[in-house]
Amino acid sequence: MDADVTDADVIIAGAGPTGLMLAGELRLGGAEVIVLETLERPTGQSRGLGFTARALESFDQRGLVPRFGGLETSPMGHFGGVQFDFTALEDAHFGARGIPQSRTEAVLEEWALELGTDIRRGWELLDLSQDADGVTVTADTPDGERRLRARYLVGADGGHSLVRRTAGFSFPGTDATRGMYLADVVGCAIPPRFLGERVPAGMVMAAPLAEGVDRIIVCEHGAPPADRSTTPDFAEVAAAWKRLTGEDISGGSADWVSSFTDATRQASEYRRGRVLLAGDAAHIHLPAGGQGLSTGVQDAVNLGWKLAAVVRGWAPDGLLDTYHGERHPAGERLLANTLAQGTVFLGGAESEPLRALFAGLIELDPVKRFLAGVVSHLDVHYDLGEGGHPLLGRRLPPRVLTTASGPVGTPTLLHSAQGLVLDLADDPGVREAAAGWKDRVSLVTGVPQDPDAFAGAPAMLVRPDGYVAWAGADPAELGEALHRWFGTPA
Ligand SMILES: Cc1cc2nc3c(=O)[nH]c(=O)nc-3n(C[C@H](O)[C@H](O)[C@H](O)COP(=O)(O)OP(=O)(O)OC[C@H]3O[C@@H](n4cnc5c(N)ncnc54)[C@H](O)[C@@H]3O)c2cc1C
Q: Which of 51, 67, 420, 430 is the most buried (most CB within 10 A)?
């Protein structure tokens, strides 16, 4: 294969939520993308049943929310099974619930295809090699083995990522200590336990999934992690359910039975040369609080515009490395919070004193706000420099601006995945400073309807991922920030 000829700018392995979100982001940034997916068609099965407040905001930034139909968010959530009201923190909620992962994937696949992604189902990545100019991959396809070449490869191929293993990423962490069952049960009514319930021998959860189908989760103290090579059968799950709850569900059957564990690992680097990792390929953990898919989506939104900028040729030096710099710490916090939740939620009698102490602490408003920020992912704060405005490195909160063409919500201003200069004090100096970047940064003049929005910032630079890269009044500082994030003006 000629090393100069490429089939795409970027190949993504895996059409799960992370790979599909990344494909859409890259297309919005102008990159040519091929997604390789082993499965010939989606399984229709859903590990996840929702996403966090920040993942919902990420979808809103791309105009995707109406595609989900009526989304409901829940103010009441939990940390380690201890319930509390997330609305103690402005904009926070426990996320959108009751949305099967298969639905999220269908929405993202439709969007990525509309944007021109080349999704190749039935193509399993078998091998890869990288050189100074690109990455060559071998895939098993319906027409036999094929080789493809791209400038970059992203492994979004899930927790057992072949990309991660083949490209030599290390994946330190802890092995599974507990095994848990999941089953989608039909043919018997199961009393709901939406946020999970601790019982003497473990923890059980039950929630309606669809008409006549209940999702149950069973975690029994002392149950070893399941052998991954076999699928558990429903009789095993029903027996465990009976031991823990006393309820007999053995007369029903299951649409789907699966098992999972609390194995907790994170790739020590998210980039090795021209190969990058995102989503479960980069981090695995106990699924506490429904955060895995949501984190993968946020990895994708962070990486997409940066990688597109690199392949389009306008990326400033070091931009791509900020992906690891920003998302690796976010992954570390995810692993820490899910490990903590596992201890409080799934531990045996020995965890009761800790749990009682924790239940007292969670009554305190600052504790509620802190934990709501952690689990909703609204607390993500990228290190974009010392001092500066309080919003620096944080998400742009969704607020309405009054502009010359009428009211507009800030998420709408990010639909195109361009950078955004908000001129909030009608300052010609700000507009002049931004003028050179208009091919990649939009400029909007307006006034927030809520005068306290944006902590009084007179102007802001917002990255395509919705994070504030600069806030202030000085056009010269704005120019420096534009150079730093958006390169040399056209
Ligand atoms: C019980 C449970 C409940 C959960 N609930 C939630 C929740 O409510 N909210 C939430 O945010 N998260 C939840 N999660 C986590 C969530 O399911 C995962 O984090 C999410 O699926 C990760 O998405 P991904 O795209 O990174 O990986 P995956 O979803 O694993 O997708 C990877 C894709 O890559 C494909 N692939 C693999 N190898 C190859 C290859 N060699 N070549 C080509 N294609 C390949 C696979 O077929 C797959 O389609 C839950 C997890 C579990 C176990």
A: 51
The answer for 309, left when phi > 0, alpha when psi is -120 to 50, beta otherwise, is alpha
237 and 254 Cβ atoms separated by less than 8 Å = yes
What is the edge-to-edge ordering of all strands in the sheet holding 447-448? 406-409, 400-403, 447-448
Evaluate: CB of 289 within 6 angstroms of ligand 1. no
When pLDDT is averaged across residues 336-360 and rounded to a whole number, the result is: 94
The whole-angstrom separation of Cα 173 and Cα 426 is 51
Pairing of strands 264-266, 202-210: unpaired
| Cβ of 401 below 6 Å from ligand 1 | no
Contact of 135 with 153, CB cutoff 8 Å:
yes
Tens-place pLDDT, residues 236-289: 999 999 999 999 999 999 999 999 999 999 999 999 999 999 999 999 999 998
DSSP code at position 233: P
Question: pTM above 0.85?
Answer: yes
Report how far residue 486's alpha carbon sits from residue 260's, in angstroms, rounded to the nearest whole number.
Answer: 42
Q: For ligand 1, is residue 120 a contact (CB within 6 Å)?
A: no
Is residue 52 within 8 A of residue 375, CB to CB? The reply is yes
Residue with the smallest CA separation from ligand 1 atom 52 is 47
Amino acid at residue number 122: G
The whole-angstrom distance between residue 201's C-alpha and the CA centroid of its chain comes to 32
37 lines ligand 1 (CB under 6 A): yes
- 307 residue type, one letter: L
Most distant CA atoms of the chain, gap in Å: 72
Q: Give the residue among 486, 387, 397 at the shortest CA–CA distance from 440.
A: 486
Mean pLDDT of 375-403: 95
In the predicted structure, residue 173 carries a pLDDT above the cut 60: yes
Residue 312, C-beta contacts closer than 8 angstroms, at least 6 positions apart? 29, 30, 31
Atom of ligand 1 nearest to the CA of 294: 11
